[in-house]
Design brief:
204 residues; mainly alpha; Serine Threonine Protein Phosphatase 5, Tetratricopeptide repeat; 2 domains; 9 helices
Length: 204
């Protein structure tokens, strides 16, 4: 009986050690770290002058899906899956659009991802569903409002080849510019009104 108890304790202890090791290692010991996976996928997708081969796309998708084990809430990972799927099919189909929607749902505005993600969406404007278009417009407008120089805006516009997308992006920037000007005028008017009110109160 004593020997049996010791065996049970040994088995239980081994299970706890294994569980602790699995928790420390992560969900998939064979998965690449996110930074390694991202750089590897980038090389697979942009490593040559020719379009990525079916083998390279399959490898890129496998690595990216492994990366989800490390960072399931990373918007860039979902956006990359959308890119890979669209490269495979040659268009932004409903599945790719859904993957991109997941990226936006995790981070509606992402300072590190905005140029690529917004450019990608506007570049597929003709086939993008309305819900995805709204997401892209909102992010593009926020990007315009936060842009520190014209160069970053030009960088985004240069990524869009779809004529409908280029027009939509230009109109989005135009609306954002008007909103900025209107907000500045309103703020200036409020400040001037406040100054006049203080001056009138100070009159004898």
């Amino acid at each position: 009986m004593l020997n049996m108890n010791w065996r049970l304790w040994a088995i239980a202890g081994g299970a706890l050690v294994a569980a602790g090791a699995a928790w420390m290692i992560g969900p998939d010991p064979g998965a690449l770290r996110p930074d390694t996976a991202e750089s590897t996928v980038d090389r697979l997708l942009t490593g040559g002058s020719k379009p990525a081969s079916a083998k390279a796309l399959a490898r890129a998708e496998a690595l990216t899906r492994k990366e989800l084990a490390w960072s399931p809430a990373a918007p860039a990972v979902w956006a990359r899956l959308a890119q890979i799927h669209s490269l495979r099919t040659g268009r932004l189909d409903p599945q790719a659009a859904d993957l991109l929607q997941r990226s936006y749902a995790l981070s509606p505005y992402d300072a590190e991802l905005v140029i690529w993600r917004t450019g990608f969406t506007f570049d597929h404007w003709s086939t993008a569903p309305q819900a995805l278009r709204r997401r892209a417009r909102d992010e593009a407008a926020a990007f315009y409002n936060n842009a520190k120089d014209r160069a970053s805006l030009n960088e985004l516009q240069s990524q869009v080849r779809d004529p409908a997308g280029r027009l939509a992006l230009a109109l989005t920037f135009q609306d954002a510019s008007r909103f900025q000007a209107h907000s500045a005028d309103a703020a200036e008017g409020l400040a001037a009104g406040g100054a006049r009110g203080q001056a009138e109160q100070q009159r004898p």
